[in-house]
Amino acid sequence: MTLRSMTGFAREAGDTGPYRWAWEIKTVNGRGLDLRLRLPPGHEGVGEAARQLIGKALGRGTCHANLSLARAEQTPVARINTAMLNGLIDTVKGLALPPGIAPATLDGLLSVRGVVEIIDDADDEALLTRLAADVEAGLTRALAALVSTRTAEGEALAAILSAQIDRIAELAAAAEACPARQPEAIKARLAGQVAALIDSDRRLDETRLHQEAVLIAAKADIREELDRLKSHVESVRALLAEGGVIGRRLDFLAQELSREANTLCAKAGDASLTAIGLDLKTVVEQFREQVQNVE
């Protein structure tokens, strides 16, 4: 599966009879899937289907989905109820009219209630059913375009993250190979720190001095941090290869990388190793910022 960004935009519009409708969907970063749906009054029935479609298409992010709907002004259509009109004509023909009463005219018969019916498309159930189907199909197309946009951004994001994790691996390797980590250099620094400890307090007994020396040595050892950095780098690479909805897991690993980089800097005890640690912290922070965009 490919990596997808959480940011994207799509628009889909169409016409159904006298209606002009349009979907606009915008997504931004979010911890989970947060759907904010806006529908025109009287069309809330579209909401449930829209939520299901969006939930299937998106895994994470804040989604603003807006449906706009406008109805064109139309001249009402008049329809004559011919059965009723013919019935009236037959009835009138059979009547014996009193003197002075004129026979019924066509316009008079047409004015009888029910003979002429005014048809309004807004009351046509078939039209409303077709409108709901077209709007749902339009949302499906809009979501497909949105996912395509998020996927394209995700591919670019994956390249950036891969380059950053490679740089993190390079800096971890540089820290491991740093001359300051050679046994002779570590021994010299420890000897200097122990000597300074003795000078500061000559009353230290041999046991206490041994404990302090062990503590100094433990603080100077970054082996565990380097091993964990290597493990986290491998985990990140595995997730990038897996793809899909991995943003929260990447965010967790970014936090772990940051923790190890901070600890490495705190333990450095040497200018060259500190410089590597600061570079590592910078790249890890950049990595963590980019991870916030991953679905």
TrEMBL record:
Pfam families: YicC-like_C, YicC-like_N
Organism: Chelatococcus caeni
Cofactor section: a divalent metal cation
Domain Endoribonuclease YicC-like N-terminal: 3-158
Protein name: Uncharacterized protein (TIGR00255 family)
Domain Endoribonuclease YicC-like C-terminal: 181-295
GO MF, one example: hydrolase activity
Record keywords: Endonuclease, Hydrolase, Nuclease
Family: Belongs to the YicC/YloC family.
Superkingdom in the source lineage: Bacteria
